[in-house]
């Protein structure tokens, strides 16, 4: 069993694995199909940050996030030989993660208290009003169905187009649009003043500060 | 260009739907132009656009996550190791029975190899069922030949009831044996029947089977006699008590 020291991880040849994102993902998948564990680790480190950010927004629990990431990469290990290259590797991996996240979300629903406790903190003092609005948005998002929540996250957090989300979720484009439609309707019911000018001004300022 | 009311409604519905992807910047040029033209005159879509911008800003904020991929990756590799070990163990069992089937003439040698195919798996499954049935037959024979062990209210029996054969198995003295490579399934069957024994474990990676003798194995003399007899059989390469 591989053991990794808790000390500084030197990766391969002294290179930080998190900076090897430029490696050809397809070549890595082809090597993984040949049972190359080195390739699996490289791919793991390439996608871990992206997946953990995405999944933490939904799970709000690091243990579940890690479980879904490892489930996803275990499937990659088992099915690398079946990847035909008819989609991007990122789309393929996100598709696997999407299905695993869906299963996990249906199994565990985050509680309201958990959301309040684990609401993400911004890099600077966002103010009480912004924090309260942020928690309201998180609670509203938590009330969506798993499929609707994932569409929102893939669109607004990961920045995917409608067509890309359809490939990840393995469903028609119209299905993605329908889920987004119902998600937005639900959000309007719960947060009717979301478009309020004050909130918009504050959030846009905050977003500009953080980017 | 004259637009009908229906066209306007269709455009409104289409723009409303596209707003999410206009906000995240992935909408195509033609659709983007349509959105920007429509929101100039539609207050409802302007309000919805504002709401989606707020939502996107809230969702797009990076959560405070401590990234520790090394530890998580180590867990994944451990899981892969365990999965590989299970796969190899099953492959060894299938290969052993595949070889036994080939020697017994049930199948040809093409089914025996490092990667046994579906036919070898099927034959191996049949061998496992056969051995299990042999053990069951042995137990049935023994239990039918033994006097019924029950006590009535008027029973004059003073001694305690003899435990049935199956209840003594957990206390029986197991033996470890290794068959010769040329041993056929028929030889295995005959040997087990002679001893009134059945396989309770194995084969191990070294081809070791653990057998239990009923009811001979319940006595020290019986165990010693069985061990002596086994060591004299040409099909047995190795026999020893399983416990010190």
Radius of gyration of chain A: 19 Å
Please name the two chains that share the biggest interface, counting residues whose Cβ lies under 8 Å from a Cβ on the partner chain. A-B, 60 and 41 residues
Q: pLDDT below 50 for ≥5 consecutive residues: which ranges of chain A?
A: 1-22, 112-124
Helix content of chain B: 55-70%
**What is the arithmetic mean of pLDDT of chain B?**
78
- Describe the biggest sheet of chain B? 4 strands, antiparallel
The largest sheet of chain A is:
none
- Strand runs of chain A, count: 0
What is the approximate shape of chain B?
Answer: rod-shaped
**Proportion of β residues of chain B?**
5-15%
SS element count, helices of chain A: 10
Total helix count of chain B? Answer: 7
First-last Cα distance of chain B: 99 Å
Task: Describe, in plain words, how this protein is organized in 3D.
The complex is a heterodimer of chains A (211) and B (244). With 211 residues, chain A is mostly helical. Chain A has helices at residues 25-33, 37-59, 62-79, 89-107, 112-118, 128-142, 146-157, 162-169, 173-190, 197-210. Chain A contains ten helices and no strands. Chain A is elongated and about 55 Å long. Chain B is α+β, with helices and mostly antiparallel strands. In chain B, strands 2-3-1-4 form a four-stranded antiparallel beta sheet. In chain B, helix 4 (69-103) crosses helix 5 (118-145). Chain B is rod-shaped. The chains are: A mainly alpha (211), B alpha+beta (244). Chains A and B meet through helix 2, helix 3, helix 6, helix 7 and helix 9 of A and helix 1, helix 3 and helix 4 of B.
Task: Briefly characterize the structure.
The complex is a heterodimer of chains A (211) and B (244). Chain A is 68% helix and 0% strand.
Features:
heterodimer; A: mainly alpha; 10 helices; disordered N terminus; B: 244 residues; alpha+beta; 4-stranded antiparallel beta sheet; 55% helix; rod-shaped
Sequence-ordered SSE layout with sheet pairings:
The complex is a heterodimer of chains A (211) and B (244).
Chain A: H1 25-33, H2 37-59, H3 62-79, H4 89-107, H5 112-118, H6 128-142, H7 146-157, H8 162-169, H9 173-190, H10 197-210
Helix pairs in contact in A: 1-2, 2-3, 2-4, 3-4, 4-8, 7-9, 8-9
Chain B: H1 5-23, H2 29-39, H3 43-60, H4 69-103, H5 118-145, E1 175-179, H6 185-195, E2 197-201, E3 208-213, H7 220-232, E4 236-241
Antiparallel strand pairs in B: 1-3, 1-4, 2-3
């Amino acid at each position: 069993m591989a053991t990794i020291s808790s000390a500084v991880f030197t990766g391969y040849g002294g290179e930080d694995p998190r900076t090897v994102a430029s490696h050809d993902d397809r070549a890595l998948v082809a090597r993984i199909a040949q049972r190359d564990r080195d390739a699996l680790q490289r791919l793991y480190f390439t996608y871990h940050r992206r997946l953990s950010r995405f999944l933490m927004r939904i799970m709000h629990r690091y243990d579940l996030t890690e479980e879904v990431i490892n489930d996803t990469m275990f499937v990659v290990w088992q099915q690398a030989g079946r990847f035909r290259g008819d989609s991007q590797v990122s789309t393929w991996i996100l598709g696997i993660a999407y299905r695993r996240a869906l299963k996990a979300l249906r199994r565990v629903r985050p509680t309201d208290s958990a959301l309040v406790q684990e609401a993400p903190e911004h890099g600077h003092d966002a103010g009480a009003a912004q924090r309260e609005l942020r928690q309201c948005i998180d609670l509203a998002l938590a009330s969506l169905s798993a499929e609707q929540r994932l569409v929102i996250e893939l669109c607004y957090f990961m920045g995917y187009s409608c067509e890309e989300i359809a490939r990840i979720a393995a469903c028609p484009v119209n299905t993605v649009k329908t889920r987004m439609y119902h998600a937005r309707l639900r959000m309007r019911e719960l947060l009717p003043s979301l478009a309020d000018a004050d909130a918009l001004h504050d959030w846009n300022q905050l977003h500009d500060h953080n980017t | 260009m004259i637009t009908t009311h229906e066209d306007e409604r269709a455009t409104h519905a289409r723009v409303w739907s596209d707003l999410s992807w206009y906000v995240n910047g992935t909408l195509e040029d033609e659709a983007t132009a349509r959105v920007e033209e429509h929101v100039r005159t539609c207050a409802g879509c302007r309000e919805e656009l504002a709401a989606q911008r707020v939502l996107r800003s809230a969702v797009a904020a990076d959560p405070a996550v401590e990234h520790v991929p090394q530890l998580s990756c180590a867990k994944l590799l451990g899981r892969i190791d365990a999965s590989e070990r299970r796969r190899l163990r099953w492959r060894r069992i299938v290969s052993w029975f595949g070889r036994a089937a080939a020697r017994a003439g049930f199948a040809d040698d093409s089914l025996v190899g490092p990667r046994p195919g579906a036919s070898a798996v099927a034959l191996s499954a049949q061998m496992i069922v056969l051995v299990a049935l042999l053990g069951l037959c042995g137990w049935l024979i023994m239990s039918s030949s033994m006097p019924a062990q029950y006590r009535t209210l008027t029973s004059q029996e003073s001694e305690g009831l003899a435990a049935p054969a199956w209840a003594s198995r957990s206390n029986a003295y197991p033996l470890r044996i290794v068959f010769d490579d040329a041993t056929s399934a028929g030889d295995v069957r005959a040997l087990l029947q002679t001893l009134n024994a059945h396989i309770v474990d194995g084969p191990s990676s070294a081809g070791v089977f653990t057998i239990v003798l009923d009811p001979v194995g319940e006595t020290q003399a019986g165990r010693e006699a069985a061990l002596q007899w086994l060591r004299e059989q040409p099909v047995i390469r190795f026999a020893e008590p399983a416990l010190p």
